[in-house]
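Thread: sanity check for a docking pose with pyridoxal-5'-phosphate

Original post by kr_44:
Hi all, I'm comparing my docking run against an independent structure prediction. Below are the sequence and the ligand SMILES. Could someone generate the full complex and paste the structure tokens? I mainly care about where the ligand ends up relative to the chain.
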Amino acid sequence: MMQAQRSRGTPGLQGVVTVDLAAIVANWRALRDRHAPGAVAGVVKADGYGLGAGPVAQALLAAGCAHFFVAHLAEGMALRAAIGPGPMIAVLNGFPPGADEDAALTPVLNSLGDVARYRGRPAILHLDTGMARLGLDAREQARLAEDADLRRGLDLRFVMTHLACADEPRHPLNAAQAARFAEAAALFPGIPSSVANSSGLFLGPDFASDLARPGCALYGINPQPGGPNPMRQVMRLDVPVLQVREIGQGDTVGYGATWCASRPSRIATVAAGYADGYLRSLSGHASAAIGDRPVPLVGRVSMDLVTLDVTEFADVAQGARVTLIGGPGCSPDALAAACGTIGYEILTGLGTRYAREYLPA
Ligand SMILES: *Cc1c(COP(=O)(O)O)cnc(C)c1O
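Reply from moderator J.T.:
Ran it for you. Here is the predicted complex with pyridoxal-5'-phosphate included:
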């Protein structure tokens, strides 16, 4: 890709998500170097954490990434159409019964039923070691290991597990899961293993495997919460100012009149809201940015609009651009911390009313 590409969204007074594919590739390379000699996949479920699975996967593919993970079959089929034949595309949630099996996707087998259904085609076996969501539990693992009939025709490319507490390095469940997985994987000798997500890549050699599965760190989310972020920021959401108005001391802004001007103020209204995934719980807690200066949110986030106090920004007028996410003080992680969630939710919530622009890798 030679130029910034634009996709989706409606033209006009809309926000623009700018995705820096070079930064995503740099993040992937850093994780690959960290995990060597094990390989590193790209997790692009939920439309590449809201940033666009197709463009992200194409950039990673060009950089040498050969394994991709999505959550749903439909995501896998769309991704296969986008990147063509060749690289593995694994479907974490497995295939639904009666699914179209022609898309050259790799199912993750999450139960003995899946094992029976998908023998004879390349698959990944999910061994649950402490998450209790999907995958074979310890009893089912033992049953499969003991029963040659059950195993007949199985064509396993990887055995995998998923860590529950990788973002809390001192949590005792990490070591317990590593030990349980070592035991469980030994029941399937010779099959490559897949363990770490983004945070797991920072837990040390006990969590190394043949294929790590990072998602969030590719997209600039800090895989080591509480410490400095080793990843590059990859996205920015810029939204246009629709109006700027002067209000007097004592005037209130927005639903519920939750913010009251303590001085004559200038209020900028911008075109994004909770319908675009800019969470209402950010009301009163977050800042945006104009250039490199933080600008405080005032009043409630509404469905399609956000209001900002631009009293200190004399030159902000209609049509100006405000960085709502990805500027100084408003990274996805910072916004998440301000409203009690995680950066993942800020990214995956990015709405469909924004345009997406891609800076080339
Ligand atoms: C989402 C997911 C990942 C990626 O996790 P991150 O924390 O985003 O790196 C890896 N493995 C499984 C099973 C997942 O569901």
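The pocket of pyridoxal-5'-phosphate is lined by residues 43, 45, 92, 162, 197-198, 213-217 (CB under 6 Å). Hope that helps with the comparison, let us know if your pose agrees.
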